[in-house]
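INTERNAL AUDIT FORM
Audit reference: QA-55
Scope: verify that the stored structure record matches its stored sequence.
Auditor: D.O.
Record contents follow.
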Amino acid sequence: MKRLFLILFFMALFASTSPAQSSIAQHPEVTGAIKLLEAWIETQMAYRGQPGISVGVVHDQKLIWAKGFGYADVEKKIAATPATIYRMASVTKTFTATAIMQLRDAGKLSLDDPVVKHLPWFKIKSSFADAPVITIRHLLTHTSGLPREAAFPYWMDANFPTIEQIKETLPQQEAAFAPETRWKYSNLALALAGEIVAVVSGSPYDVYVRDHILEPLGMSSSTMLFPEAQHSRLAVGYGRRMPEGKREFRPYMDCKGITPAANLSSTVEDLARYLAFELSDGTVGGKTVLKSSTLREMHRVHWLRPDWRGGAGIGFAISRANDRTIVGHGGSLAGYRTQISFSPDEKLGVIVLTNSDDGNPGFYVNQIFTVLAPALKKAVPPAAAMAQADPEWNKYAGKYRSPWGDSEVLIVNGALVMIDPTADNPMETMVRLAPQGKNRFKITTENQNYGGAVGEIVTFELGANGEVVRMKTGESYTFRLK
């Protein structure tokens, strides 16, 4: 509650009265929030030593912000962009679930069909004599009780099995739980769901998804089986940063028979189309890709976790935090961590793709929601616009550093502000710099929990060329970074 109050307070602090922008992406509240996020993400990446991140935000079915940070290839200095391709890993599962639901809506299967109805070879050991039969619904909600993986150590040796090998070894495996006993994540379950797509549709899994989901949504850079022609656009995957600061190169993984659980490759630009679809009525270009009622069915809880803070939808994870319901999925494959998340109520979706094993996309997703959602709420309907910033303030904007930490001065919504970009929540560190004369400002904030430099005078000291070289706060100072 404290965090929400601070966010709303700082957004209100910069509200004013000028003509509304025609596009929400250009609304001062939104552009100010994006500036803050860009400064924060850049600094977080620098201090964490992360190679690259690509970010996208969709609001009301429109891509309102997309940006790359760092490098897709550190050695070759190839910048990460919204068009950079990443391995999506388990985000693939949402596409497999969508394919199943399309076939369900077409009357070709039922979610409560036993798996064995479509895969007669499906057989696994079980010590649960009175357990219900495993159904397609169980596969998609991770309530089947199946083992997490097929009977191969592919996460260790990168040698993934074919679907034929999975068929051969499945009878040797044993169920971990009876169906509907508890939520248990399973790549094996989604691999089986993908094989059901292939059997029921009469098309190979990757072909079906391409023809019925990727192409209708205009996701031209997304593939289940990665073509050689796109390798130059693929972000290099890196391992986690070791204590000495180094990262190992992580080789490409072809997931083969586990493809329906993990093999999608995509971009921020393509996934923005996907989230726009998830936030729509299911119709794209006049064609129904999925019924709106089916989308809502996939987005609601079908298995509630014991703590009541989240659960499983159909193909999606659902969580509840800070009075917001988030639907989405994360992904983890050697060298990549990815996440897509959206709030149906707010018509807001966030994409964060990283190319390192410690990329932690959820950390960035959460902060983007925290900062941007209040700004969008104030921009719809457009509120009276902001006061105009003094053009002279542009020379003060930039990064500053001392042995004690970093500061960044920004112009946000017509105000000159300062943040600590290394903080987990930059909104809690934001203060306003109120003009007090030439190159002089006073630190102001209504946050009663903010101590330190509040009320102090900030003086920007200029060099012979008229550019800022130092920012003095009280008797302390930080130096401008070039």
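Auditor finding: record pair retrieved intact. Residues 40-87+215-358 form a domain with the Beta-lactamase fold (CATH 3.40.710.10).
Action required: none
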